[in-house]
């Protein structure tokens, strides 16, 4: 086995959203050990207690200044939109038309798709993200490329081919039956191959014909353990358009429900402009919302109501939504989530933010039995956070008096520079060259 030593923090359950976490929900060790065997967590515990009990010759990586936390999980991100990030001056619908669709069209080129998939997975790791739920493009090759890149890095991703048969350029649209066939074939190849999982991925109701939505729902019914991902209630212009396209449906959410797309394996990105009836239906169906704060502020979409969703019993995950979002960093995403909550007169504690980015998101994606915390038997997916990893973090560090403050500094001031190392299944795949651990052998 291998051993990683440093400050260590992970969640055993939802800590709530009060300054004091619910007792038993969080484990924090000022000087802790993460013991890894065969890519899985063997145990965590205080260094003082466990160092003397390690067998002779076990390698110990001591991450001084490091805080070891579970790898971040991103519940909504677009692999083909790295180049779309920071596109100026648009809201959702003109942003899609002006910037996003032309860029996604480039993924018909398999070499381009492969290079971007490699770049994307490397960037996830350098930002501390070890897993996630990912949109590809409507080209099956883009899905193939992403799963291959994830597999090469030992990462487990959940991803799918965008289904989109109308209201998009010809070089991006598929057909209802073609999208069903391609999705099914990719699903059969990739779902549960190693750590990869497939997700049925209709882009959103505006770009799918009723026939396509119906086939997507049929596929979801045929494979109830496969996730469904789509976009929902992000922008007021979008919502008006859906009303015109589906006048016979009671609401935007009712469109998805009608076509059999709302179950407990469904993750809906955004869900900003919604009401109590929507929340009640989501809670009843067990469908989840991916809260995408940097995208929602950047595109001027609106302020997600975190408190109301929680109060209604809706599961909420946290997501970057790159390229609508402005950072792949889940730390930067937590910061923006906090600000959105403040603008709504609400709050987001660092406990809750770090919970969401780790165990909470694992639960949203139905993968908490494999990832999200350091309970024995989980994959050893972890990040070493450098509490002095950027000039701002280093500036604030001497004033920091508690784990609560340390976490809050990291989320408000941190970004990819705070990622000292990222490991997937015990293997370090990204490490800052200027911040190597002290190696010893016990
Ligand atoms: N709605 C439909 N497609 C998209 C997309 O690519 N990004 C975002 N943010 N919203 C969408
Ligand atoms: Fe999105």
Automatic annotation (TrEMBL):
Quote the cofactor binding remark: Binds 1 zinc ion per subunit.
Question: Which keywords appear in this protein's UniProt record, sorted alphabetically?
Answer: Hydrolase, Metal-binding, Zinc
Q: Which reaction does it catalyse?
A: guanine + H2O + H(+) = xanthine + NH4(+)
The keyword Lipid metabolism is annotated on this UniProt entry: no
What Gene3D superfamilies does the record point to?
Metal-dependent hydrolases, Urease, subunit C, domain 1
- Where the record annotates domain Amidohydrolase-related, the positions are 68-428
One example of the protein's molecular function in GO is: guanine deaminase activity
Write the Enzyme Commission number(s) for this entry: 3.5.4.3
GO cellular component terms listed in the entry, alphabetical order:
cytosol
Top-level taxon: Bacteria
User: What is the uppermost EC class here?
Assistant: hydrolase
Against InterPro entries, the record matches this protein to: Amidohydro-rel, Guanine_deaminase, Metal-dep_hydrolase_composite, Metal_Hydrolase, Metallo-dep_hydrolases
Record pathway? Purine metabolism; guanine degradation; xanthine from guanine: step 1/1
Instruction: Name the Gene Ontology biological process terms.
Output: guanine catabolic process
Q: Which cofactor does it need?
A: Zn(2+)
**Protein's UniProt keywords contain RNA-binding:** no
| Protein family (similarity comment) | Belongs to the metallo-dependent hydrolases superfamily. ATZ/TRZ family.
Q: What is the protein name for this chain?
A: Guanine deaminase
User: What species was this sequence derived from?
Assistant: Marinobacter oulmenensis
């Amino acid at each position: 086995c291998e051993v990683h030593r440093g400050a260590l923090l992970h969640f055993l359950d939802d800590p709530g959203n009060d300054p004091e976490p619910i007792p038993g929900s969080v484990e924090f060790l000022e000087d802790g050990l993460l013991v890894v065997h065969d890519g899985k967590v063997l145990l965590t515990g205080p260094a003082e207690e466990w160092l003397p009990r390690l067998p002779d010759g076990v390698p110990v990586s001591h991450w001084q200044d490091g805080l070891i936390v579970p790898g971040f999980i991103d519940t909504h991100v677009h692999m083909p939109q790295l180049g779309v990030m920071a596109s100026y001056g648009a809201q959702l619908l003109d942003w899609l038309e002006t910037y996003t669709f032309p860029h996604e069209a480039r993924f018909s080129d398999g070499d381009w798709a492969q290079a971007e998939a490699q770049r994307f997975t490397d960037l996830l790791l350098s930002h501390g993200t070890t897993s996630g739920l990912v949109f590809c493009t409507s080209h099956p090759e883009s899905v193939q490329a992403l799963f291959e890149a994830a597999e090469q890095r030992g990462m487990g991703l959940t991803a799918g081919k965008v289904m989109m048969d109308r209201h998009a350029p010809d070089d991006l649209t598929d057909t209802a039956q073609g999208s069903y066939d391609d999705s099914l074939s990719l699903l059969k190849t990739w779902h549960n191959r190693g750590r990869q999982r497939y997700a049925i991925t209709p882009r959103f109701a505006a770009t799918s014909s009723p026939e396509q939505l119906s086939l997507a729902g049929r596929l979801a019914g045929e494979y109830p353990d496969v996730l469904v991902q789509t976009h929902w209630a992000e922008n007021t212009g979008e919502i008006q358009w859906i009303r015109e396209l589906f006048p016979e449906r009671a609401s935007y959410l009712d469109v998805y429900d009608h076509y059999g797309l709302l179950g407990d394996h469904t993750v809906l990105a955004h869900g900003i402009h919604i009401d109590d009836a929507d929340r009640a239906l989501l809670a009843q169906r067990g469908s989840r919302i991916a809260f995408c704060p940097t995208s929602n502020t950047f595109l001027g979409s609106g302020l997600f109501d975190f408190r109301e969703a929680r109060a209604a019993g809706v599961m909420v995950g946290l997501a970057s939504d790159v390229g609508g979002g402005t950072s792949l960093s889940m730390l930067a995403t937590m910061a923006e989530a906090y600000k959105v909550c403040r603008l709504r007169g609400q709050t987001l504690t660092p406990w809750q933010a770090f919970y969401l980015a780790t165990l909470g998101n694992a639960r949203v994606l139905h993968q908490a039995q494999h990832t999200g915390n350091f309970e024995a038997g989980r994959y050893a997916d972890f990040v070493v956070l450098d509490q002095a990893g950027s000039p701002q973090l280093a500036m604030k560090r001497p004033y920091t008096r508690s784990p609560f403050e340390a976490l809050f500094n990291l989320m408000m001031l941190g970004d990819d520079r705070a990622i000292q190392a990222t490991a997937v299944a015990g293997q370090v795949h990204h490490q800052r060259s200027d911040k190597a651990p002290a190696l010893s052998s016990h």
